[in-house]
Design a protein that fits this description.
single chain, alpha+beta, Helix Hairpins, 5 domains, 3-stranded mixed beta sheet
Amino acid sequence: MAKKDYYEVLGVGRDVSDGDLKKAYRRIAMKLHPDRNPDDASAEEKFKEANEAYEVLSDAEKRQIYDQYGHEGLDANSGGGRGAAGGFGDIFGDVFGDIFGGGRGGGRSGPARGSDLRYNMALSLEQAVNGDAVEIRIPVLAGCDDCDGSGAKAGTSASTCPECNGAGQIRVSQGFFSLQQTCPRCRGRGEVIADPCNGCGGAGRVEKRKTLSVKVPAGVDVGDRIRLSGEGETGPNGGPAGDLYVQIDVKPHPIFQRDGRHLHCEVPISFPDAALGGELDVPTLDGRVKLKVPAETQTGKVFRLRGKGVTQVRGSGIGDLLCKVIVETPVKLTDEQRGLLQELKNSLDSNSKHSPRGKSWFDGVKSFFDELKP
């Protein structure tokens, strides 16, 4: 059976804001929550659909994939995130945690995974093309050394919460139905700390600066991400650490511009070299190479140096270096040089075969104005 459109499930338009999306989900979830409809299988199924729809649309990355490719795109990119079928508590608890405490079944909340972090790394073109090992320093929430992340002062320990007897949740009656709620005293941990650690104030985590060496693979480009598993923030209550995502940016280069696996550059050339031909020293990321320029080369001509580009991280083969020749007009001429150029000009003007493109252009202009005459 084909899945319903997520926007239709939540009754919102495709341009809905994050705030209105959350309001729509709250309204539907409150109405269809299984605790309010204990014997209604259809309500439970609709609740699951709303839970799945909100899980996708509230995640910017998943929403972009869904908007572009639909359900098939999400299936092809499955494997990350919490997953739409992970139960009611994952998403519902994020929105209604203080009311329902994470959905049906409840239970003491275990150690949560720490937050993922992002670090923007600016590389030179040479580092991006050749790869490098770059050392970075990042601020993170890490486990407190004084209490080993327990939150309790050394020599003491947490005790069972007397409010929920260690369950982490309590049940309260509201009108005609009973709700499960996160214990307000222990906040779902099932334990309370009577004598908190001085180093972290009972939180179990403190902010630290961590130094990491990031191995940058050869061929990375702007927008690529490097994932360092377990290098994010330490989770609360002794939970596992999240991941660190290093976002790659490449600084502008004074000579080269990159286009995928190819490099581009402009090569200035003198008028005599362009007319007579010759050899030029051209820079590459591997060193200088000789570029043979044939006689009568025009400005804008592109020469391809094969294998002097980039080997991409994903893909095979090395790109090329594309050199665009720019004929440079001489400046600050001496009287002698100006006289020589004038002689050359007079000689060239006497025969149009030396400027075939110029002749055809002027002939076209003359024809154009002749057609405008009445």
